[in-house]
Amino acid sequence: MDIKIFVASAVHVQYAEEICRQYALSASDRGTGIATRTPEYVSNKMEKGDSVIALDGETLVGFCYIEGFEEKKYVSNSGLIVVPDYRGHGIAMQIKQKVFALARDKYPKSKVFGITTSSAVMKINSSLGYIPVTYSELTRDEGFWKGCASCSNYEILKSKEYKMCMCTAMLAPSKEEMKVDLTDQIIVPEHEEK
Ligand SMILES: CC(C)(COP(=O)(O)OP(=O)(O)OC[C@H]1O[C@@H](n2cnc3c(N)ncnc32)[C@H](O)[C@@H]1OP(=O)(O)O)[C@@H](O)C(=O)NCCC(=O)NCCS
Questions:
Q1: Pocket test for ligand 1, best of 82, 94, 122 (most atoms within 8 A of CB)
Q2: Is residue 187 part of a domain?
Q3: Which residues are paired to 51 by β-bridges?
Q4: CATH, residue 146
Q5: What pLDDT score was predicted for residue 27?
Q6: Of 18, 86, 93, 96, best ligand 1 pocket probe by most atoms within 8 Å of the beta carbon
Q7: Domain range holding 12?
């Protein structure tokens, strides 16, 4: 294996169909919705520099992309997939590290979030600094929640008025929020000020 991980660009559009085929296979295996995407949608993410691809030579290994909501107040790192033969080697972790760094650099004001039922993804997100939150801390953008419509749990989400469902919500602060100097907030006891 000689796996390399790149910020995807127009030269990778040739992999878009295979990525979508992997999404469809994964959705039918898991029985839960990994949202449906078209090759055109994936290609557009590549062309805009908003995705990360892993290749073993010329073979597709994995993919993940960035999606923005509420004028980029929030971004998600969505559509993480590693081809079955390559799972269990830490590749998803590397892809997420790269796409997270890309999201932070391109969109420093954006909080990064995701929802997942995957324990692998929860572990990866925790290692990147995400914390579990309630759905009330996520974007209200309908465009995001529309992605849940292809999930078998969608009726549950709707019945709970989009406030809870089977997925765990996770959120990481924006790059700018991380820069806040916490020493500003240290309270000096009165007797030390004199
Ligand atoms: C989820 C997925 C991306 C993981 O890819 P991967 O390359 O095998 O993951 P990694 O090897 O980087 O593992 C990352 C961590 O998750 C753990 N992990 C991996 N698969 C796991 C599983 N099925 N159950 C529990 N933990 C798992 C690993 O042990 C590792 O933790 P560690 O660092 O503490 O050892 C891959 O299984 C996949 O593509 N699944 C189908 C699509 C999907 O579920 N996408 C996520 C949608 S939210």
A1: 82
A2: no
A3: 65
A4: 3.40.630.30
A5: 80
A6: 93
A7: 3-176
* CA distance linking residue 13 with residue 49, whole number of Å: 12
Å from CA of 87 to ligand 1 middle = 7
127 lines ligand 1 (CB under 6 A): no
Q: Is 116 in the pocket of ligand 1 (CB under 6 A)?
A: yes
- How many domains does the chain divide into? 1
Q: Which amino acid is at 97?
A: Q
- For 3-57, the pLDDT digits (tens) are 999 999 999 999 999 999 999 898 877 666 556 689 999 999 999 999 999 999 9
Dihedral over alpha carbons 122, 118, 147, 164 (to 10 degrees): -70
Q: Report the nearest atom of ligand 1 relative to the CA of 127.
A: 33
Does 189 map to a domain? no
CA 88 to ligand 1 centroid distance, Å? 7
User: What SS3 state is found at 36?
Assistant: coil
Q: Does residue 186 fall inside a structural domain?
A: no
* Tokens 């107040």 -> residue: 73
**Residue 54 CB–ligand 1 contact under 6 Å:** no
Its pTM stands at: 0.90
Residue 62 lies in a domain: yes
pLDDT in tens, the chain (194 residues): 899 999 999 999 999 999 999 998 988 776 665 566 899 999 999 999 999 999 999 999 999 999 999 999 999 999 999 999 999 999 999 999 999 999 999 999 999 999 998 999 999 999 999 999 999 999 999 999 988 887 888 999 999 999 999 999 999 999 998 876 555 555 545 555 44
- Specify whether the CB–CB gap between 18 and 41 falls below 8 A: no
